[in-house]
Amino acid sequence: MDSTTHILGLIRRALDEFDDHPLEVSVRRAVRIASLIGDSHVAVRLGLDLQVTGGDPAQHRGDLERLMADPSRWESPDEPGPAVTAMREYIRDRTKGVSVTLCKSLVVTRR
Question: Rounded CA gap, 45 and 86, in Å?
Fold first, then answer.
């Protein structure tokens, strides 16, 4: 089975079973498909929705130290990579939603 047939099979299965499983399952499948077709931006963006907020500070510290030790892994601020772009959009979308909700609640409260 070639990779195109395999990916097409994953897409069909994800669509066929969308209503039968929790949303997290479909998002994980979409992340996997995006990774397989090389769409890093979509894979990172959807993967952010799967992450639990918070976490273990000791583990994060180790990850940061490992990543910061190798300057070749740093992204240019002028040309951010797919991970940075996806994170910015993810935060913007959630901040926008919070701002709209907050504004609506203020309007309702003042009436």
Answer: 5
Length of the chain: 111
Output the six-digit token pair for 81: 């990579």
Per the rule left: phi > 0, alpha: psi between -120 and 50, beta: everything else, 22 is beta
User: Which tokens sit at 6?
Assistant: 């395999």
Spatial distance between the Cα atoms of 66 and 34, rounded to a whole number of angstroms: 26
Tens of pLDDT, residue by residue over 3-32, are 899 999 999 999 999 889 888 899 899 999
Q: Cα angle vertex 90, ends 12, 49, to 5°?
A: 50
Residue 87 CB-half CA count within 13 A: 6
For the whole prediction, is pTM greater than 0.85? Answer: no
The residue among 90, 92, 8 whose CA lies nearest residue 43 is: 90
Nearest-Å Rg of the Cα atoms of the chain is: 19
